[in-house]
């Protein structure tokens, strides 16, 4: 318990009847000393050092134990009073310091007749006083005579008890200032670290994953950072002394008490046992209700119950730890998993020890505060490990699902590839047979009608074979096994073949097909089979999405020695709907494969969106076949 309290085993000299003899105390050897014991006390009076001149003490004085509440010592909880202590030291001119932590709820500190420190403004009535109540450390020069007089005025009209409730310490200036600076550094580090964690967790919730645990922990770290900033050395109050008292203390107290309900929400969501959830709901609701009271009631009203509520916080955390340990021993891990429940129990246990240390040993000793800071750091680390473990488990589940999806995708690709090869044989048979029948001369009108139907069969089979080729090529593109044979290809001849294939569909939709590829821009360097596959996909898209009018293909040669083929519809576009080509999903594997093939052959493919009312158009760019090669 000595370690938990952060106290030294050295017994400090105690003041007797308003006098403290430190003549045998060596600050270099023994360190700082707590000015505990009997101080002179003058209730309902604010006396200045000059009121004690001449060695005659003012009337109505008494002795009071410091630290303690002054309630019942000639003054009620709310009122004012003056403390006085005479200290005898070894004669020294070294720089000494006094460390004052909590004096409720305002004070002025005089050393050897000089005002050296102040928090708020003590007064004999509420109208005359201004609350402050924040720690400070003040330095002064030791008296050559070795005599030191400390006079402290105090006033409280806010809390249900007043007075010096935490020891006042005296020591070497450099030691106490170093202690103060170290504590401030620890607090700032805690505020920064917890603010960063709050930002990270809230950002994860808002931007990437709506997992409620991220938001809960984000809010927890946010309010914990505010709590640290407003407590301890109460840095906020010293940096912004003009902020209204009520606002400052509402923020301070609300951030401190709302932490427990936030963690209750997290545990409540994870625990499935009905009895445990009921206990968590009741305790969390009571603390949340008090947090609301902090927001809506004046400080002096909600502070009436603060002592009991604050004392209940460690017990409520013990309750949470007990419920989690009980679930762990029963093997009832719920949604946590064994490892995550272990981390959660350890993190809650560390914050419980922090609260016990704060509640039982709230004397602002440096070691005790350092222990509290260490427990907070341990809690942060364990909390982060808890969420990292949860995220790691989620990531592993996603990896397993990804592997399953990849295996299913591979099976799908293999099925499509097998099906495509199986379809290729009959389709090419249909193409060859129909073409052979078409090549026979038709001498009668009945024969000509049959040939027209055969052409329809051939053209339909050609389109189906092209779709099957897309599936095969898509699989090859994914596997990186697509081979290209680049050669001189006549774009005008290829377009004529396609016009014949799509003639029946164009005639049915009253679309005129115009081949305007000129002699100066007709030969391209490409793979003929893949080029025909691309043109087929483009014609299929543009014809299907055009009603009446014309579809033309024109060519031009660029300065970069490339051939640009523009396929454009001048007719009325179909009404955009579920199969609008502006939706990339509708393009399907046809245009996806077409674009990939063109890029593999050193060209580019662009298209326009017909949704605005204009016809669809494609612009295909490929390297021109060198003229020297033509010759």
* Strand tally: 22
Q: Uncertain spans, ≥5 residues at pLDDT below 50?
A: 1-9, 576-588
Mean pLDDT: 83
Helix content: 40-55%
Counting H and I runs of at least 4 residues, what is the number of helices? 18
Give the CA-CA distance, first to last residue: 101 Å
The biggest sheet amounts to: 7 strands, mixed
Shape call = elongated
Radius of gyration: 43 Å
By secondary-structure content and strand pairing, the structural class works out as alpha+beta
- What percentage of the residues does DSSP assign to strands (E)? 15-25%
Give structural notes.
The structure is a single chain. The radius of gyration is 43 Å and the shape is elongated. The strands form six sheets. Strands 1, 3, 4, 5, 8, 9 and 11 form a seven-stranded mixed beta sheet that branches. It contains 18 helices and 22 strands. It is an alpha+beta fold. Residues 1-9 and 576-588 have low confidence and may be disordered. Strand 8 (106-111) and strand 9 (114-119) form a beta hairpin. The protein has helices at 2-5, 27-30, 173-208, 212-230, 235-239, 245-257, 259-270, 274-296, 299-302, 306-329, 338-360, 366-439, 445-479, 491-501, 503-508, 528-544, 584-600, 627-630; strands at 19-21, 33-34, 37-43, 62-66, 79-88, 95-100, 103-104, 106-111, 114-119, 136-141, 147-156, 163-164, 169-172, 487-490, 511-516, 523-526, 546-547, 549-557, 562-569, 572-573, 604-607, 617-623.
């Amino acid at each position: 318990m000595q370690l938990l309290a952060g106290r030294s085993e050295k017994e400090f000299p105690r003041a007797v009847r308003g006098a403290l003899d430190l003549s045998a105390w060596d600050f270099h050897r023994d360190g700082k000393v707590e000015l505990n014991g009997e101080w002179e006390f003058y209730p309902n009076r604010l006396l200045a050092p000059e009121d004690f001149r001449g060695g005659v003490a003012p009337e109505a004085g008494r002795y009071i134990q410091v630290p303690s509440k002054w309630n019942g010592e000639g003054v009620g909880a709310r009122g004012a009073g003056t403390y006085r202590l005479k200290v005898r030291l070894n004669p020294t001119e070294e720089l000494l310091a006094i460390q004052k932590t909590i004096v409720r709820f305002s004070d002025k500190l005089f050393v050897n007749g000089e005002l050296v420190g102040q928090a708020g403004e003590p007064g004999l009535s509420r109208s005359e006083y201004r609350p402050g109540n924040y720690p400070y450390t003040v330095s002064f020069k030791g008296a050559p005579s070795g005599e030191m007089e400390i006079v402290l005025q105090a006033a409280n009209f806010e809390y249900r008890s007043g007075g010096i409730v935490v020891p006042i310490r005296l020591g070497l200036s450099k030691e106490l200032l170093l202690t103060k600076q170290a504590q401030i550094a620890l607090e700032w580090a805690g505020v920064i670290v917890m603010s960063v964690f709050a930002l990270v967790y809230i950002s994860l919730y808002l931007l990437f994953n709506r997992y409620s645990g991220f938001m809960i922990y984000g809010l927890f770290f946010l309010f914990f950072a505010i709590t640290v900033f407003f407590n301890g050395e109460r840095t906020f109050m010293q940096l912004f002394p003009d902020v209204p008292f009520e606002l400052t203390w509402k923020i301070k107290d609300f951030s401190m008490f709302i932490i427990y309900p936030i963690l209750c929400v997290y545990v409540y969501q994870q625990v499935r046992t009905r009895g445990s959830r009921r206990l968590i709901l009741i305790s969390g609701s009571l603390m949340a209700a008090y947090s609301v009271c902090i927001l809506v009631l004046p400080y002096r009203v909600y502070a009436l119950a603060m002592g009991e509520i604050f004392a209940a916080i460690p017990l409520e955390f013990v309750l949470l730890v007990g419920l989690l340990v009980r679930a762990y021993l029963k093997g009832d891990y719920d949604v946590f998993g064994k490892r995550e429940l272990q981390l959660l129990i350890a993190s809650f246990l560390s914050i419980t020890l922090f609260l016990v240390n704060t509640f039982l040993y709230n004397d602002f000793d440096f070691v005790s505060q350092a222990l509290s800071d260490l427990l907070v750091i341990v809690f942060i680390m364990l909390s982060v490990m808890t969420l990292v473990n949860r995220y790691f488990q989620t990531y592993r589940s996603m990896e397993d699902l990804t592997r399953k999806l990849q295996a299913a995708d591979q099976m799908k690709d293999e099925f499509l590839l097998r099906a495509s090869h199986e379809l290729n044989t009959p389709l090419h048979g249909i193409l060859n047979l129909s073409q052979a029948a078409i090549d026979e001369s038709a001498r009668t009108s009945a024969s000509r009608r049959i040939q027209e139907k055969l052409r329809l069969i051939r053209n339909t089979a050609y389109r189906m074979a092209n779709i099957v080729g897309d599936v095969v090529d898509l699989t090859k593109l994914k596997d990186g096994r697509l081979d290209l044979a680049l050669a001189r290809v006549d774009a005008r001849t290829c377009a004529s073949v396609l016009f014949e294939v799509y003639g029946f569909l164009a005639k049915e939709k009253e679309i005129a097909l115009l081949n305007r590829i000129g002699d100066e821009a007709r030969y391209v360097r490409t793979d003929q089979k893949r080029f025909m596959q691309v043109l087929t996909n483009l014609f299929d898209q543009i014809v299907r999405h055009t009603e009446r009018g014309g579809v033309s293909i024109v060519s031009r040669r660029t300065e970069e020695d490339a051939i640009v083929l523009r396929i454009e519809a001048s007719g009325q576009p179909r009404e955009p709907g579920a199969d609008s080509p502006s939706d990339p999903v509708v393009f399907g594997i046809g245009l996806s494969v077409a674009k990939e093939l063109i890029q593999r052959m050193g060209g580019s493919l662009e298209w326009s969106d017909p949704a605005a009312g204009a016809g669809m158009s494609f612009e295909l760019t490929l390297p021109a076949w060198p003229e020297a090669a033509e010759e």
